[in-house]
From TrEMBL:
EC code(s) of this entry: 2.5.1.101
Name the record gives this protein: N-acetylneuraminate synthase family protein, putative legionaminic acid synthase LegI
Organism lineage string: Bacteria, Pseudomonadati, Campylobacterota, Epsilonproteobacteria, Campylobacterales
Keyword Transferase part of the UniProt annotation: yes
InterPro entries: AFP_Neu5c_C_sf (IPR036732), Aldolase_TIM (IPR013785), NeuB/NeuA (IPR020007), PseI-like (IPR051690), PseI/NeuA/B-like_N (IPR013132), SAF (IPR013974), SAF_AFP_Neu5Ac (IPR006190), SAF_PseI/NeuA/NeuB (IPR057736)
Gene Ontology biological-process annotations: carbohydrate biosynthetic process
Amino acid sequence: MSKVFVIAEAGVNHNGSIELAKKLIDVAAQAGANAVKFQTFKTENLVSKNAQKADYQKETTDSTESQFDMIKKLELDVDTHKELISYCNEKNIMFLSTPFDLDSVDLLSDLGLEIFKIPSGEITNLPYLRKIGNLNKKIVLSTGMADIGEIEDALDVLINAGTKKENITVLHANTMYPTPMSDVNLKAMVTIGNTFDIAYGYSDHTLGIEVPTAAVALGASCIEKHFTLDKTMEGPDHKASLEPSELIAMVEAIKNIELALGNVIKKPSSSETPNMKVARKSIVASKDIKVGEILNTENLAIKRPGDGISPMRWDEIIGSVAKKDYSKDELI
């Protein structure tokens, strides 16, 4: 199987600071993530002045501040993008960013991004989907809040615009921060893969790392997870993000599950083969047996070790004649 592609989602957890953004890149690279992802938007294009914040944002930020003012502080300009891209190159990790408007799609395309991440909120944005589909790049599509019909419609737009299906990975997601376990519905991820015969993965907003790890066991080829330097920082997404040690633990767990999945063939592994003699049993003499005696249930037993005749041949041995003398516990 190909390796799971892990996207460490820094999002807006840089709080508008390039220094914090670079520290987040350091953490993602150290954890062994494949990519670190930010968010690209022009606030004026993204949010109308009177748009309300989500409830979770009201809880994690100043509730009197508008969504526009909150987001404006988190905007990254073109030069900052260039600086972060070159910093990612130094750290040997892929730079990704989610565009939230048409101008931002152009900006990221001009900067040479190879993968375009479509956030859940844009899955019903036809002009946006068409524009990204038109680029013929690799696409990762999040599907929070969507049903299977909406996913189908979005895929049709992307593919009709010119993107090959094999270049699209669809992520199951739940757009609540944090997501309650009862709302994860991880089996739906497999439904997406089976329904569209497409690469699938999971974008996680639960607290902890067990759900993304389970997603890998269910065949996810891409995992995305929010992380931060410190959950207690000011800002909308810190609280539902992993701290550095947890991100490291998640990537480690994913690698272990990948290894553990192995292949589909059931046979003794190289590590357990030496134990077969020790743990399995053979047919032995349960008492002294003289040559010419009939072997029967009275004078035979089944005991360890397993390097004699297999007990699966019991019926064949019972009623046969001893070809030599046996002492008690000797292998037949």
